[in-house]
Amino acid sequence: MGESSGGRGLFVGLTTLDLIYQVEAVPSSNQKVVAQDAAIAAGGPATNAAVTFAHLGGTATLLSTVGKHPIAGLIQADLATWGVQLIDLDPDRSKSPSVSSILVTAATGDRAVVSRNAVGAQGAGDRLPVHITQALKERRFDVVLIDGHQMAVGAAIAQQARAAGIPVVVDGGSWKPGFESVLRQTDYAICSANFLPPGCASADVLLYLRSLGVSYIARTRGAQPVEYLSNQGGGQVAVPPISPVDTLGAGDIFHGAFCYFSLQLEFEAAIAQAAQVAALACQSFGTRHWMTGE
Predict the structure, then answer these.
(1) If residue 43 lies in a helix (H) or strand (E), which one and from where to where?
(2) Which of 50, 54, 86, 214 has its CA at a distance of 20 to 30 angstroms from the CA of residue 3?
(3) What b/e sequence results for 154-172 when a residue is b if at least 16 CB atoms lie within 10 Å of its CB, and e otherwise?
(4) How far is CA 33 from CA 37, 121, 125, in A?
(5) Is 78 helix (H, G, I), strand (E, B) or coil?
């Protein structure tokens, strides 16, 4: 949690080990296929956002559950490679971290994902690491992102960040029970088209979030313009036209880039820059190759 000209971010949520395969087509029942390419990386919304934030020049701290299973070593090594500091909510956990199997269709970049997410690996909101609580009180973070996969922890962190005057960003990839408790402490809600609170139609989501007191709201819609609403008004931000190679993690990368640029730019401009970074990521296979130029 040292000083950084790019800002200091705390990212709270899911960490997985992603096994990523590029295939000609997703196999049907009882069919075997040979992958055209493959990659292994730490994954999860908060994790990919933290890696992106660090790559862009920020100091990223990830608060998540990984444990001490042998697979955890692969996750820890990947995070270290990309300069992300991991604070483990359950370092003595012996069970395997969540493993995601991902098939990316080569012709379209569409992905199919099977994962346990954070099921069975939830941290307690009243048992946060003491040094994280102290760092929040002392404003040693400039922005906090919460992805909702550690809901109790996320709610506690959001409350503490709000009390300290640290901006809270929510990654609303999909609705999760209890999200309203986090959203009431949120400054920026950046949601996908799949984020539908109970009883909300697609057209009602932005107004629902405003009713919870969220000041800045954006809704990504794939290749369509990003819709946004703020205290200054609303509108749309165009996204770069591309031919996607792999859309895996595009939303996570958007969120990490938004956290980085939100510390430097106005809301609409930060959205536009985040869209540029996510578009770049979609033009290479996996969630890391875009950062290496491969």
Answers:
(1) strand 37-43
(2) 214
(3) bbbbbbbbbeeebbbbbbb
(4) 12, 32, 43
(5) helix
- Give the per-residue pLDDT at 5: 64
CB atoms within 10 A of CB 261: 23
Reading phi first (left if > 0) and then psi (alpha if -120 to 50, else beta), residue 197 is in: beta
Report whether 69 contacts 94 (CB < 8 A): yes
Residue 236 phi/psi, 5° resolution?
-135, 150
Check if the beta carbon of residue 240 is closer than 8 Å to that of residue 220. Answer: no
Looking up tokens 């012996």 gives: 94
Please state, in angstroms and rounded to a whole number, the distance separating the CA atoms of residues 216 and 233. 10
Distance separating alpha carbons of residues 270 and 49, to the nearest angstrom: 15
CB atoms within 10 A of CB 137: 11
Spelled out in words, what is the top-level CATH class assigned to the domain 8-15+45-96+118-292?
Answer: alpha beta
Structure confidence at residue 2 (pLDDT): 40
- Tally helices (H) and strands (E) across the chain: 9, 13
Dihedrals phi, psi of 161, to nearest 5 degrees: -65, -45
Domain spans, the chain: 8-15+45-96+118-292
| DSSP state string for 81-138 | HTTEEEEES-TT--SPPEEEEEEEETTT--EEEE--TTTT-PPPTT---HHHHHHHHT
pTM: 0.94
Token pair, residue 146, equals: 């919460």
Segments in the chain below pLDDT 50: 1-4
DSSP-assigned letter for residue 203? G
